[in-house]
Amino acid sequence: MLACVNLFLLVLVLHRQQESRSYSENAREDAITVLWNTCRIELDRALLPGEMELVPMVVERDQDLEQSQATALLGELTALPTDSMRYEGTKGIAQFYINGAFSAEFLEGAYPVEEGTPEEFALSLMDSLGIDAQVESADTSAWPRQAVVVVRQSWEGVPIFACTATLVFQDGALREIQRDTSHRLVGTPQALSGGSCLDIVTLLLRFADYVKQNSRVCSEITGLSAGYAMDAQSEPTQLIPTWYVTTDNGAYYWNAVTGDIRPEQPDA
What we know:
It contains 4 helices and 15 strands. The protein is an alpha+beta fold.
């Protein structure tokens, strides 16, 4: 008798799971239809990812990490920061800011690129800082006279969209990390309890409304990838699960927690 009851319960659970999957699939198809009917935006069903699996994170400033990264960049430190957060070392100077911005200027000959490419050198340098990074863009057409490499930091394999660093090379050597376009995680991310994300159907419908309300022009969504946006203005810093959405006319960030949508390139 008990075996029959257990079998019945198993069949009931499987049936409800199948109903839930069918409802979810139908809702996605309906959202794609709404996107086309209201905005004439195409979306290939095969491009739609699963639901967001990332959770909101917080990052507390770790001054020990900051000093160890300064040492890795500058060699032996000859001056520690006061209020200016400026480090000096045998290879140059660097500044680290509470919001994650950082910059460095290196002495001539401090970082010659003796073998490999500027991109490989940039990734090796980030690795020495304990930063998992990937090359986002590179201009090496005038190498070795000059080159610029932009790398983007990841956390456990997930890209952090705002955490990029711009490395400037001149005469075959690294000379600068630019402040205005360089940011880093100021500590180790920790999961924020109680955070949840909107489902992809809700976000698709919000995008349709956003396009109509803001007179945006695009005719096709070409890709969706998950990552983190970084809010360095909050205390502590927050990492927010975010979809990076490419279209045939620009890209957008979809905040998976609040549903806010913003273009990658702000309007002039």
